[in-house]
Design brief:
Layout lengths: L1 E6 L8 H14 L1 E6 L6 H10 L4 E6 L1 H11 L5 E6 L5 H5 L6 H14 L1 E10 L2 E3 L2 E5 H10 L2 H7 L2 H13 L7 E5 L10 E5 L5 E3 L2 E3 L11 E6 L4 H13 L2 H5 L3 E6 L1 E14 L2 E21 L4 E2 L1
Parallel strand pairs: 1-2, 1-3, 3-4
Antiparallel strand pairs: 5-6, 5-15, 5-16, 7-9, 7-14, 8-14, 9-12, 10-11, 12-13, 14-15
Helix pairs in contact: 1-5, 2-3, 6-8
Length: 307
């Protein structure tokens, strides 16, 4: 099998010694080539090139941003995606049952490669770019923008930087101004929203080992699940956050929560709103078209079947 290992050497948990072990293991029974990303976004053209060059599998070693780029490059093809988690959160990898320890993940991958153990999953698409687990609009995306401005401390404190970003964003965010509405193909329209999580899987994210569950129904084999917020009062917002880590009762009962399921939806601005995909900030938008792409990507994981 021809395998392309794409490595982000700037990933939070990248280690050169582990890399040597992984390369040796993958090359023992397979034809292996290794390429490094040099900047954010570089993984996409590398992965697209792997398709045209005839590779059978792409192994993405990095965080959720790296996985997003690799998935975007492979969507709609028969080239398999394997993940070695190297970021600070690794939501997609953990959702697919891939261990966080690199050597353990590599050991599992070798077995899955031998067994041909892949799973065909669906992805979301927003503004022409795929996402693996979430597209966030409004307040949530503004938090990601704030976190990216604090990237220098992300390596030091890990996922806790999102708590700092949320507090800083909440203090500055205009919580009296709705951001957008969602329009559905069947004529439905959401109320004015401050925030929307468009989820392709669950959990939404992790705080250390704690999963943050917003829409437990979300999954790679079903349409997108949407959780929106019509208001952001500080006490209720805190209760929603706490509820998502331990139980979902308040999420189910909160009068500010809006829920929907969709294969296609359009976000239309009330004011320009922030957008992120898989915790990568995508800027402000006036309109955003979001769709579900069923069974468009083959992944090697512990939750699949031999094909």
């Amino acid at each position: 099998m021809r395998i392309l290992l794409v490595v982000n050497p700037y990933a939070t948990n990248y280690d050169t010694q582990q890399r040597r072990v992984v390369e040796k293991a993958l090359s023992s029974d397979h034809e292996l080539e290794v390429r490094e990303t040099a900047r954010p976004g570089h993984g996409l053209p590398i992965t697209q090139g792997a398709v045209t060059e005839g590779f059978d599998t792409v192994v993405a070693w990095g965080g959720d941003g790296m996985v997003n780029e690799a998935a975007a490059g492979l969507a709609g093809t028969d080239v398999g995606l394997a993940i070695l988690p190297g970021g600070s959160t690794n939501v997609c990898a953990r959702t697919l049952g891939i261990p966080l320890d690199i050597l353990a993940a590599a050991g599992n991958l070798l077995r899955w490669l031998d067994e041909g153990r892949t799973r065909r999953i669906g992805l979301g698409s927003a503004g022409g770019r795929t996402f693996t687990f979430v597209c966030g609009l409004g307040f949530d995306a503004a938090v990601v923008r704030e976190v990216e401005s604090r990237s220098a401390i992300k390596r030091t404190i890990g996922p806790s930087v999102y708590l700092l970003g949320a507090v800083a964003t909440f203090a500055e965010f205009d919580r009296h101004q709705p951001q957008f509405r969602l329009a559905f193909d069947d004529g439905r329209e959401s109320p004015p929203l401050m925030q929307a999580f468009v989820c392709n899987s669950s959990p939404y994210t992790y705080l250390g080992n704690l999963p943050m569950v917003l829409v437990p129904e979300a999954g790679y084999d079903r349409p997108l699940e949407i959780l929106g917020l019509t208001r952001l009062p500080w006490l209720s917002t805190i209760r929603l956050g706490v509820s998502s880590f331990w139980h979902q009762r308040y999420l189910r009962e909160c009068p500010y929560v809006y829920r929907a399921t969709a294969t296609h939806v359009v976000a239309e601005m009330i004011v320009p709103f922030d957008v992120h995909q898989d915790a990568e900030y995508r800027g402000k938008r006036e309109r955003l078209e979001i769709s579900w792409m069923p069974e468009c990507l083959s992944v090697y994981c512990g939750q699949g079947h031999s094909t």
